[in-house]
Each structure stands twice: as structure tokens, then as C-alpha cells.
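Q: Please design a sequence for this.
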């Protein structure tokens, strides 16, 4: 009798174990099973190729899809030191940029295997504060790190462009609750953390050698990147009128942002001295863009300004036909402006003249030298000819509900909020192509260069509160370029 009960118990144990295994397989599918489901939910390789694209990789972000979703993201590029100006030959220039010469036919047999080339990372932050770094070229996860308290709101990430000497690495910034966390880019190791003076209003921005955190009560808190984590110190406060609800925009020598009271501010990077305050007369709900000595400011409604980064003097003003909630997108000497209800303008960077407009577009995703990648927010990847605004191709992607604007290079990043991510690019572009080459870091005003051609402005250059300029040719009130 006891042997019968033992056999029965073992049989029930095996059945229970098998049932648990199948339930676990159903609820927590393996990476292989997840990969099998990807083509049905996302863009297949064949579908991408039909539209002139290569599906470089597809991956799963390391979050719990039942309770978490993607929130913030940013793309960085590998650090390239500036070339030595004294270098005259191609060999010297390549050595300064760490570019290896092409292999000769006889060298292939003895050449050592090439090490993976850092083409940049994609940094992703989830709503439950999981930070992950993914290699942009291969889609391989480099590291994943929890940040602070999962129940606290998080904002970020942002990445420094230069190596911080004390830590021997570039740093990644994330805000969790009321604490700023800085991680090493290569390993994900925590470098330092610091309490904020007040709650953050938006994601941090890094303008080497400082990290800037916008505050919901107004102003921006600045922290030096290179400091001893054991030191006790306080933030440097940069004052501004009105809450800052968008990340600041930094370049090599200045940083700027807009406020909900309608003011745009510019400060000198490093010394954090006020350069200008400009009254846009409407709330600024989108981050500023930057191009060759000018901040591009999109006020909430209609007006877009190009401000000299030193004086705040308006170089041009453009009037659109809608609300602006996304940052102007700069690509290959053009400004792309989207409006909330759907529609896109292409403007010249020099004078803000409209080159063309197109309906439906709600977000710019990326740009290559010959194509502009956009979406209508309804599950369509719309490829546009940047020369004339005509649609080259439309790719239906109903399973996609997470679209990323990549202002850095041509890589198209999209996926689902629950953690599936894919990268597309044109087959001929094996390595990422920069969207906009960085401006020369002179820090000088372009007033002198454009004084003879500039639009008239109310208020002298450098005035603390410059007023908007007048339109040369204001459009008619019923003039709608999108045909509505």
C-alpha cells in the first residue's frame, strides 16, 4: 500500500512539474520564442527591404512587459577627439582621429581579428526606472541597471560627449525622484549621485563639463561632472522666469531653454553666465534646437524664431499654422517643423524661408542625406524626399507604438512600449551618418556676419529682454498649406 502511494505521489509530482514548466513557457517565453514572434508584430526584413531599408537588428529591452514600458531614450556617438590642426598629411590626420589605414591584399592572412567598433549606444529608460545600454550597430545589450526607487518617477537619460577624467569614462545622467544619478557609459557602474534642490521638471542635459537639471519651480540646477563623490557640495542655480518643462539644449559653448511663461534663455557653458532672455510671448513647450550659432525656438502657437546664441537677437521668424510641441529637427542645412494636428514644414536654416510643406506628418524620426523618415502617428513609416516634400514610400507598421526621434544620425529606432525595439537603415549606409555636422566651437556671435541682411528687431542686440521681430510677409489668416 505504501509503495502504491509512493508511485502515485511521484506521478503527481511529475505531472505538476510538467504543468509548471508549460505555464512558465507560456507566461515567460524564451528569447528564441520572442524572436519568432517579432516578424508578426513588427516590420519584417523583407518588408523593410521592399521600402529600401535594411532591418539591422531586433531586440528585447530587459523590462517586465506586464508591468513596465519604455519611457525615455537617447542615442550617443563614439567620442572622436578633434584632429590635430598641425597635422598635414592624410596619415597624420588619420592617426589623430584613430582611423586605421586600409588593409593591403597581402596583409589579410596575417591581420589580427578586428575588434568591435563602437558606433554609439542607445540608452533606454523605463517607467519603473530600469536603464539599459544597447549597442547601436549590433543591438546587443551592453548593460542594464536599476535606478533609485522603481516607484519614483524618472527622467532621462542624457550622455556626455567627453570622457570625464576622474572616472575615465563618459557619464550617463538619469533623475529618479529628487536624486540625480550619474553612471559610467561603458559599464553602467554608478559614478556618483546627488540630491536635487527641488523636483525636476524634465530630463537632464549634459553640456560638458556640466550636467543641467530643469526644475519644475523654475530655473535649472547645474552640477560639475568631474568631482569627488565624497565631497559635499550644492548645485549652481541658473535662474529663469517660469517652470521649465523641457530639457535644456547644449552645444560646445552655450546652453538654452524655454519656460512655460514664454521666455527663452541662453547661458554661457562653463561659467553659467546669462547671455540673453528673449520674450516669445507664448509658452515654450518644446526643447530648443541649435544650428551654427543660433537657437531655434518654437513657441506654443505659430511662431518659430532663430536667436543668435550670444545676444538673443532674432535672426528670422517663421509663422506656421498650428501648435508646436516637438523640438525643431535640424538635418543637412534644413529645419523641419511639425505641428500637433499633423503637418510638416521644411525651412532654410539661414533665413527661415519655407521650402515646402506636407500634410499628416506628426513626428520626424531620422534623416539620411537623401531621405527624411517620419510618421503620422497612426502606424505608418512615411519616407519623404527632402528636396521637394513628396512621399517616396509608406510602410504600414500597425504593431509599432513607440517611435523615437533620432537627431544625431540616420538610424531609425522604433518598436513597442512593452520593450521590443528594432533598428532600420539604408543598406548602403553601413555606419551611422551624422544628421547635422556640429558647428564650429567659436562661441562668437553671428551678428557681424549677418548685420547687413538681418531682419529688423525691436530692442538692441544683447538687450536682456529682446522682443520678437516683425514678419516681412505675414500669411493670410485663411492660408492653410495643408488644405484644411
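A: Design:
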Amino acid at each position: 500500500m505504501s509503495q502504491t502511494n509512493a508511485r502515485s505521489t511521484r506521478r503527481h509530482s511529475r505531472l505538476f512539474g510538467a504543468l509548471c514548466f508549460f505555464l512558465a513557457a507560456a507566461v515567460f517565453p524564451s528569447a528564441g520564442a520572442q524572436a519568432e514572434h517579432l516578424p508578426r508584430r513588427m516590420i519584417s526584413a523583407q518588408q523593410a527591404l521592399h521600402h529600401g531599408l535594411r532591418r539591422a537588428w531586433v531586440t528585447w529591452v530587459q523590462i517586465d512587459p506586464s508591468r513596465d514600458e519604455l519611457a525615455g531614450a537617447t542615442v550617443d556617438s563614439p567620442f572622436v577627439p578633434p584632429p590635430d590642426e598641425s597635422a598635414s598629411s592624410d596619415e597624420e590626420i588619420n592617426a589623430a582621429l584613430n582611423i586605421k589605414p586600409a588593409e593591403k591584399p597581402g596583409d589579410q592572412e596575417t591581420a589580427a581579428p578586428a575588434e568591435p567598433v563602437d558606433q554609439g549606444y542607445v540608452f533606454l529608460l523605463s517607467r519603473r526606472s530600469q536603464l539599459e545600454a544597447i549597442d547601436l550597430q549590433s543591438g546587443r545589450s551592453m548593460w542594464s541597471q536599476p535606478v533609485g526607487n522603481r516607484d519614483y518617477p524618472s527622467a532621462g537619460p542624457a550622455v556626455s560627449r567627453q570622457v570625464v577624467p576622474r572616472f575615465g569614462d563618459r557619464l550617463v545622467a538619469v533623475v529618479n525622484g529628487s536624486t540625480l544619478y550619474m553612471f559610467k557609459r561603458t559599464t553602467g557602474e554608478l559614478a556618483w549621485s546627488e540630491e536635487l534642490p527641488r523636483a525636476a521638471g524634465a530630463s537632464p542635459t549634459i553640456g560638458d563639463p556640466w550636467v543641467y537639471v530643469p526644475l519644475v519651480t523654475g530655473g535649472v540646477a547645474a552640477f560639475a561632472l568631474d568631482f569627488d563623490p565624497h565631497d559635499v557640495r550644492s548645485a549652481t542655480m541658473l535662474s529663469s522666469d517660469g517652470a521649465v518643462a523641457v530639457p535644456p539644449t547644449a552645444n560646445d559653448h552655450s546652453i538654452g531653454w524655454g519656460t512655460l511663461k514664454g521666455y527663452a534663455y541662453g547661458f554661457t557653458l562653463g561659467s553659467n553666465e546669462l547671455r540673453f532672455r528673449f520674450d516669445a510671448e507664448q509658452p515654450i513647450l518644446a526643447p530648443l534646437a541649435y544650428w551654427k550659432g543660433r537657437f531655434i525656438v518654437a513657441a506654443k502657437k505659430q511662431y518659430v524664431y532663430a536667436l543668435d546664441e550670444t545676444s538673443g537677437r532674432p535672426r528670422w521668424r517663421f509663422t506656421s499654422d498650428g501648435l508646436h510641441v516637438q523640438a525643431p529637427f535640424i538635418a543637412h542645412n534644413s529645419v523641419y517643423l511639425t505641428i500637433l494636428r499633423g503637418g510638416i514644414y521644411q525651412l532654410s536654416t539661414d533665413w527661415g524661408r519655407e521650402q515646402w510643406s506636407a500634410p499628416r506628418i506628426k513626428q520626424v524620426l531620422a534623416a539620411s542625406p537623401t531621405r527624411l523618415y517620419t510618421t503620422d502617428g497612426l502606424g505608418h513609416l512615411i519616407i519623404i524626399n527632402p528636396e521637394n516634400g513628396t512621399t517616396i514610400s509608406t510602410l504600414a507598421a500597425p504593431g509599432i507604438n513607440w517611435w523615437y526621434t533620432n537627431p544625431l544620425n540616420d538610424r531609425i529606432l522604433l518598436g513597442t512600449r512593452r520593450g521590443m525595439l528594432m533598428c532600420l537603415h539604408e543598406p548602403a549606409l553601413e555606419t551611422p551618418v551624422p544628421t547635422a555636422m556640429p558647428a564650429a566651437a567659436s562661441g562668437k556671435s553671428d551678428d557681424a556676419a549677418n548685420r547687413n541682411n538681418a531682419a529688423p528687431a525691436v530692442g538692441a542686440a544683447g538687450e536682456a529682454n529682446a522682443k520678437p521681430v516683425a514678419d516681412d510677409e505675414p500669411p493670410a489668416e485663411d492660408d492653410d498649406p495643408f488644405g484644411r
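Q: Thanks. Anything notable?
A: The longest helix spans residues 2-27. The two ends are 85 Å apart (CA to CA).
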